[in-house]
Amino acid sequence: MKEKLSLGIFKIFLAIISIIPFSILAFFSRFLYFILFKVIRYRNHVVRTNIFYALPYIEENKFNKVAPAFYKHLSELIIEIFKGWSMSLKDLLKHISIDSESQKLLQNFTKEKRHIVLMLGHYGNWEWPLLIIQQFTSLKAFAFYSALNNKAINHYIKEKRERYGATMIEMAHTKNFMKAINQQASIIAVVADQSPTGRTSVHKSRFLSLDTPFFMGGEKIAHKLDAVVLYVYLEKITFAKYVIHLKLITDKVSSLEEGLVTENYIRLFEDDILQNPEYWLWSHKRWKSTLPY
Hints:
- By secondary structure, the chain is α/β, with parallel strands linked by helices.
- 48% of the residues lie in helices and 19% in strands.
- The strands form two sheets. Strands 1-9-8-2-5-3-4 form a seven-stranded mixed β-sheet. A two-stranded antiparallel ribbon has the order 6-7.
- Helix 1 (2-19) packs parallel to helix 8 (151-162) and helix 2 (22-39) packs across helix 4.
- The radius of gyration is 19 Å and the shape is globular.
């Protein structure tokens, strides 16, 4: 009963968001920023601890701007994600696109019927690429997700994420998925910067000035399928406006030593964070075992 009630309230909320244009939602994002940053100070200690230890070498004037800029982006991101679940494909494609060179790269490997692994992180708006990627390839698109505790809302959001062609695979079902996927060339999106809690395959690297473990799911999938591996950079132009840039990590994964795909991903991802640190998810306890949260 509680789950159905929660779902009903959630649907009403999304219905309201769906009819409000981005020009007005921009105002709401500023209000949300004020609430998160100034009033409730959402995970303020976690954010500032992460920034303090991860970015010790950036200039002081830039350092002091990272936290406020992150909360501004987070406020916009929350609204973008909710709004995206109700947007038409035509409207979505006005707000997120893939640059022409990346489209060519994707089309070339699609013609070759190669499996493709997309490696991205919690940077920019990582939800929207999963909504539109199927429009740029004839390969079947898949992405992994962690299920919510509320089964009703989880099912509803899954349907929203899948409505333009991609199929969402629950993390707990990864092994079964990998057994079934071998025969069909596909494109698989992996958000690869998560903490590897409970995972046995871990790659350790120096990331943002800290020793950091990374789970190797994307790399393991690529080796199993002999897949092309592409890095996804999300360029944020402004509120609700993004451009996807794809960079080739490797199209010869079998020739690389274990850990090298993950390491190359880390270096590309780190460069993007250092360029625009406010777009990474600093509110996550990424270094739970080493930092004083």
